[in-house]
Amino acid sequence: MQFLTDADFEEEASDTLNEAVRWGRLYAEGAILARNLANEPPNMLRPKTLIEKTMVHFACTKVEAVVYEGERLEQLGMVGLIAVGKSSKYPPALLELRYCTDETLPLTALIGKGITFDTGGISLKKDFDISDMRMDMAGAAAVIGALDILAAGDVQANVVVLIAAAENMPDGEALLPGELLQYPNGVSVQVGNTDSEGRLVLADTLIHAQRLGAVEAVDIATLTYFCGAALGSKYAGIWGHDAMVAEIVQAGKQVSEKVWQLPLVDEYEAYLHSDYADICNISGVGEAGATTAALFLRKFVQPSLRWAHIDMASLKDVSSAQGWHSAGATGYGARLLAQFVRNRNSRDE
Q1: Interacting residues of 83 by C-beta distance below 8 A, sequence separation 6+
Q2: What is the pTM of this model?
Q3: Which of 127, 321, 336, 315 lies closest to 247 in space, CA to CA?
Q4: pLDDT attached to residue 219
């Protein structure tokens, strides 16, 4: 019989500590990457710039990248992305990042809203200072940061990251309130307000995730102010399949990125009624704005796809230094989504 000595216990404890420190560093670096991207001024981070920076970052890793732009977007039927981005001289694009180290695992799609600046379009924002709208791509930054953690940690995973990147600008070619969009899944949308553009581009990416064979999808976006009004600046809202939502909530507890489940109330779908299309992109009733946004997205999710939607608008930044957060972007979501994928795949082993 062999007995463990004090030196054996010390070595084991040291290995455990070193591993914890390693993961702590990886999580911090992923969050910093997300912060740095979201903090970029809008003239330094156009849609193509966001994509180029991301591709350069992952160039020497196991991540494979595909960019769709121009005619390729039209071939894919990316009607929302094309419509939102057509008024900017910096054209829209879709970035697809594939990280697959274990093909036996179910494909997980991480989807981030990548609006590099949101003026509101023709439905121009009326706020006094909208400089933080450069952070309307904080969802995209979150999924990029999460992928950085997974790739740097050599996690066994089967993940695709999708980022629909565009600027939402007003000009003579801009998307107009009242226009109709026909999505390739058969759903028609009336645009009631061009400042509700995020859901239009996320609809494209949800359809594309299913086209790629994703079994589950999480989208994360600075989607509404309503969620912050309900939950404040400490919790993001989450909707979707209950079991999947519970997994993400648990991952949030592990990394101190809080999410709170809100209900997908079927009765509120009537708030999105349109006389001219299957659905309108805004609610006609002044309540439950964050939930109706989630209900809009659900229209583009097949029943076979496990899906969760995270609205992180109120957590994208802080106005002054708080705890370990410096002023500016928080990088929220990077650690949360990386932990979710790690937990998810450990259950399949």
Answers
A1: 175, 179, 181, 191, 200
A2: 0.94
A3: 336
A4: 98
